[in-house]
């Protein structure tokens, strides 16, 4: 057995629960939420403290072992999955799940990086605060992964991405030194913003072990509406109205095409058509507030204007938590419905909000020309210009052809994205699966600076190598 | 005359208006708003386009000339003032003041870096949008300076610092190459966040020539209140109430001590005591909204609660723009009143919000022990934990002794800041004046990474050398 000396030393340091070496024990660390997998790790380290992470990294460095920091398996770009060669040590922070402190007056919470997002949200709520990051995967994803990927989700429109929600970080650097940047300060302009480099670095510059999160006041009321609209142009116009009319209380404005409503009803039999007639586009929007404002009147005022301008044709309004949860179920079930359709192209692109209608038009034309039997499902976060423009292959297509066919469509789609000054990765990052498309679009000066940053933090190239940038020779 | 060849070549490229070489023409580029000055520049370059900036930087590099990018002279840490040795070229972007584009649907504006903040705000308002950065110096400071210093100001509580308001950047790197990061995307997770490094880099990594700014809907109504409170503890408790009760519509929550109300009345004779009785502490707060909410009722609800709990003892409410401007005049005039008192210690520190009362207590004790005749003026942005804890020397102290005495008090004050896990520079940055205090607090690993970043972007050390970090040997 190779690497036995290293693994024995690591096992001695981390104890029996701290190191998994048997293939059967490691299966749950090799695949992500969507079922993508790469290979088998050398082993899985499960350190229980920052000090154990430090010692794990030091041992890896001593023995030249590559490390893959891993969160909750919902990154979806193979950034935290071990490579096929079986030579990488997965470092899972799942045992580091302590909420270290909450300061509801300072609106901050200090946590271990392995905390599950849902638990963080609940702990905040117990102190009349809110941690506003909201993702489909919030029941399983970890704060460290949210930081490493600069996670987005449903409420970015109002609260920003993870970058805006992190005040302090504690990071074990690739050489095993600890960087203590655990400040609880809301404002701090001392020197270069090291913290910012770790947000979105996908575990390639170090392992985040702790964080100070920024909280908001807890929302005490919400109003949710599912609206039927005639066109994408109407969606965009309603968004502009809603931003103004709902002040800064608009926390979600989700675009849902008719096909997704159908997929949701297929996946969840208890769901029936939400409005009397079908509409080509739906918007699921929500306003929330922490104080005693009349949100209902505010939303009704918006909808009156929207209907007068024929932007909104019909709508269902929720005024209780149960009704709101029912409307959100369409958003959740449509993902399950999509997953049941088997292999398909998932994308995560962004464009300027004003370009959404022309982009969807151009991209749809491209697909219809290239592969008329495919089905397009374009949903997303309107206020972020973030679309998941996904493509389902024809059910009749042989399984063996699907992957290649979808890859070709992706290439063409990304060209349409380029034509609208968009991004091929709005929220999921680069990892391994987006790497070649990313590199093709990187200017020489950007590549040089990116490689310089990687080399500065990780001169030996052992920290999540080959993610974002290719491994160095 | 030294450097004649270089200056002649530069003059040829930039034209007569583009290069100032006479000492008389250069005086306005050597001092900042507070009157601090360092020395005389070699010359002042005033490029009129990004291409001219590129060529200026290339010529500097060719001739080994150090560059000092300069905005509107309100940084206050000598970060953009030329050094005493007369060997640095000031590069002012004041002629690059074009608003390149506004997209009110995407909520973005694209500008030259030399645009004055006030003009940007006005241009946004003309499109029913708002650029929310608000500073005392907004009539003179430039967007490029706001970016380089990651500017803060009055509305950070609600809208964040400049970092949160910038989507894209165009930067001329120290080697003369242009980095085009001018994206209008609200969400983009491709690779390392290069943009973030320039925000707060104080011109040491490159010269920002253009930016895409993120806009908000324009506020169509505002309510302002000036409140009298019995104690700092009451201020903090009211802040917690206000964050919840005013939802996310609270845009300012300024702490003002009694002494500042008096300074304001001294500076502006038309101001009279705003409340019937004097109070030890005042809060100037503002709520704004872009839609049809009842802000007045919201604010009254908060104040009723505040009075019932004896947090608020009295208050003046503004319900018109004129009345609101009158209340804000106290905030502005107190700065002028302070300035008239001559040399004094200005600080810009931050601490956790919950620590404000104990910090002010500890810092005041320190001053009263060390120098009982000094006067303390502690005002600031409560929601950011950002205090300007300033110290006026006794009027009887000989001028020659003041500087040394204030420097000693600053050293002791910073120790109190350290004891409360605070920052010695919340919003103004490091520049030259905060450098030694900054370096004393920098851990070896932080210093190594900061020096590595500087060396990566500026291996020859010609871009604003000696700011943030000392010049390399």
How would you characterize this protein structure?
The structure is a homodimer of 473-residue chains. Chain A is of the alpha+beta class. Chain A has 4 domains: 4-92, 2-Layer Sandwich (Uridine Diphospho-n-acetylenolpyruvylglucosamine Reductase, domain 2); 99-217, Uridine Diphospho-n-acetylenolpyruvylglucosamine Reductase, domain 3; 221-340, Alpha-Beta Plaits, CATH 3.30.70.2190; 349-419, Alpha-Beta Plaits (2-Layer Sandwich), CATH 3.30.70.2740. In chain A, 36% of the residues lie in helices and 20% in strands. Chain A is built from 15 helices and 18 strands. The first copy, chain A, has helices at residues 4-14, 23-26, 50-63, 117-126, 143-148, 156-159, 194-198, 232-245, 258-267, 295-308, 321-340, 356-370, 399-419, 435-440, 444-457, and strands at residues 19-20, 43-45, 66-70, 88-92, 99-103, 108-112, 129-130, 166-172, 178-181, 207-214, 216-217, 221-229, 250-257, 281-289, 314-318, 349-350, 375-381, 386-392. In chain A, strands 15-12-14-13-17-18-16 form a 7-stranded antiparallel beta sheet, sandwiched between helices. A 5-stranded antiparallel beta sheet of chain A has the order 5-6-10-8-9. In chain A, a hairpin with a 4-residue loop joins strand 17 and strand 18. In chain A, helix 1 runs antiparallel to helix 3 (50-63), helix 8 runs antiparallel to helix 10 (295-308) and helix 12 runs antiparallel to helix 13. The longest helix of chain A has 21 residues, at 399-419. Chain A is globular, with a radius of gyration of 23 Å. The mean pLDDT of chain A is 95. At the A-B interface, strand 9, helix 7, strand 11, helix 8 and helix 15 of A face strand 9, helix 7, strand 11, helix 8 and helix 15 of B. Chains A, B: Belongs to the FAD-binding oxidoreductase/transferase type 4 family. Chains A, B: InterPro entries: FAD-bd_oxidored_4_C, FAD-bd_PCMH, FAD-bd_PCMH-like_sf, FAD-bd_PCMH_sub1, FAD-bd_PCMH_sub2, FAD-linked_Oxase-like_C, FAD-oxidored/transferase_4, Oxid_FAD_bind_N. Chains A, B: This is FAD-binding oxidoreductase. Chains A, B: Keywords: FAD, Flavoprotein. Chains A, B: It comes from Billgrantia antri.
């Amino acid at each position: 057995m190779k690497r036995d000396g290293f693994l024995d030393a690591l096992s001695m340091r981390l104890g029996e629960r701290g190191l998994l070496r048997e293939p059967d024990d490691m299966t749950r660390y090799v695949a992500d939420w969507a079922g993508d997998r790469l290979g088998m790790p050398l082993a899985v380290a499960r350190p229980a403290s920052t000090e154990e992470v430090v010692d794990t990294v030091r041992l890896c460095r001593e023995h030249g072992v590559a490390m893959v920091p891993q969160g909750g398996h919902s990154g979806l770009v193979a950034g935290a999955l071990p490579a096929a060669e079986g030579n990488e040590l997965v470092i899972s922070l799942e045992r580091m799940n302590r909420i270290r402190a909450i300061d509801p007056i300072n609106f901050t919470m200090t946590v271990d990086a392995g905390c599950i997002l849902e638990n963080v949200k609940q702990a905040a709520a117990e102190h009349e605060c809110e941690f506003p990051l909201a993702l489909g995967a919030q029941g399983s994803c970890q704060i460290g992964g949210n930081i490493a990927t600069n996670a987005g989700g449903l409420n970015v429109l109002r609260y920003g991405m993870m970058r805006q929600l992190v005040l302090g970080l504690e990071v074990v650097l690739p050489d095993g030194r600890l960087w203590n940047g655990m400040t609880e300060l809301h404002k701090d302009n001392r020197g270069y913003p090291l913290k910012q480099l770790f947000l979105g670095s996908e575990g390639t510059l170090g392992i985040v072990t702790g964080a100070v999160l920024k909280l908001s006041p807890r929302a005490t009321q919400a109003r949710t509406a599912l609206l039927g609209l005639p066109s994408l142009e109407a969606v965009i116009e309603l968004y502009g109205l809603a931003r103004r009319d709902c002040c800064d209380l608009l926390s979600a404005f989700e675009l849902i095409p008719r096909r997704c409503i159908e997929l949701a009803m297929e996946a969840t039999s208890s769901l029936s058509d939400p409005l009397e007639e079908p509409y080509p586009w739906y918007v699921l929007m929500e306003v929330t507030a922490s104080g005693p404002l009349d949100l209902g009147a505010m939303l009704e005022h918006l909808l009156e204007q929207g209907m007068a301008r024929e932007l909104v044709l019909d709508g269902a309004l929720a005024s209780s938590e149960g009704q709101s949860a029912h409307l959100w179920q369409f958003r959740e079930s449509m993902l399950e419905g999509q997953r049941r359709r088997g292999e398909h192209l998932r994308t995560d692109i962004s464009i300027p909000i004003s370009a959404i209608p022309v982009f969807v038009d151009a991209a749809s034309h491209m697909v219809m020309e290239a592969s008329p039997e495919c089905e397009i499902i374009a949903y997303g976060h309107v206020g972020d210009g973030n679309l998941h423009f996904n493509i389902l292959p024809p059910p009749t297509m042989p399984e063996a052809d699907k992957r290649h066919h979808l890859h070709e469509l992706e290439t063409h789609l990304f060209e349409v994205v380029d034509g609208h000054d968009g991004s091929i990765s709005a929220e999921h990052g680069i990892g391994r699966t987006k790497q070649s498309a990313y590199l093709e679009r990187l200017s020489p000066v950007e590549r040089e600076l990116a490689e310089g940053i990687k080399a500065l933090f990780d001169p030996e190239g052992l920290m999540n190598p080959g993610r974002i940038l290719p491994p160095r020779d």
